[in-house]
Model the fold of this input.
Amino acid sequence: MKPAWADEVWNPFILSSVTNYPFYCSGTKYVKPRIIVVSYGLDPFGFPESYQNMILKMFRFIRHRYRDQFILPVRHADRMYQFFRDNFRMPIPNLWLGVRVSNQEEADWRIPYLANTLCGKRAVLCDPLTRPVAIQRYARYLDWVTVKGDTGYYSCPLHPEWVRSLQRECEMASIPFFFDGWGDWLPEDQQDAYGRSWKHRRNLAVDLEHGGFVPPHLRRRGKDVYVARVGPLKAGRTLDGAQWSQYPEIRLRKTKPKKQAATTGPWWASWRTLSRRGVR
Done:
C-alpha cells in the first residue's frame, strides 16, 4: 500500500513493479518534483553482500534523476551507515534516508546511525508506531517526521497522545510533521474519514505508557483511550480535526547531469546506459 506522503512507489528489486513506473524518458518535464518511495517494505541493506553492486547502481540512477526526490525507508541502520561510509564521499542531494521506528528502543538505536550518514535529508518514519517515541534529543539532525498506525490482522492500536506528543516536539524544533493515518484502530475522541464518531463501540482500550490493549474494567480514565477497529480507509488521517501534511523544503539542482538520449525498458537497461556514458 502506497503511503499518503508519496507520489509513486518504486521497488527496483521486484521486476514486475518497474513496468508501471513512468519516469524512464529523460525529456519529460514535471510541474513539481515528485516524492518517490524506494523499495517500500523491502530494506535493501538487509540483502546479502552479493546485492551490493546492484544497490550502488540504484543510487547512481537516483542521483541522475535529480528532479525527483527519492525516500528510502531503512531498518538496518548500522548496515546503511557502513555502506555509505565505504562507498560515498558526498551526499546525494535528492536522496532522503528514513529510519523506520516503532518504539523508543528502536529510535535510540537507529537514529544515531542516521545522523552520521551522508544524505540529502534525514527522516524518522514511525511506521507503524506501537509505543510512545520521543525525538527531542535528535531534533537537530532531523528534517522530517512521519507517523502511521499499524494495519493487519494482529495490528496494534495507536494512542492519540503519542501522535500529539510527536507533533508538539516537531513544532517546537521546526521539523515538518506528516500524519499518515490511524491504521486499523480509530480512537474514540477522533472522527473517521467521513466525519463520524465511534464512541458507541467501546470494546477495547489502548495503554498510554506501554501500548497494547487494556480490558475496559482496567481502563484508567484520562490516560487509556477506547479504540474501535474500523479499517485504515474509514479511520482516515485526521488528528483533532486537522490533517498534518508538512514536507521539508525541496531545492532543485540548477546544474543538470550529462545529457543523454531518452531510454525505455527495464531498470537494468537504463543503468547500463548511464554507466557507458560515464555517469557515476
The first strand starts at residue 8 and ends at 10. The radius of gyration is 20 Å. Residues 134 and 166 are 7 Å apart (CA to CA). Residues 8-183+236-276 form one domain.
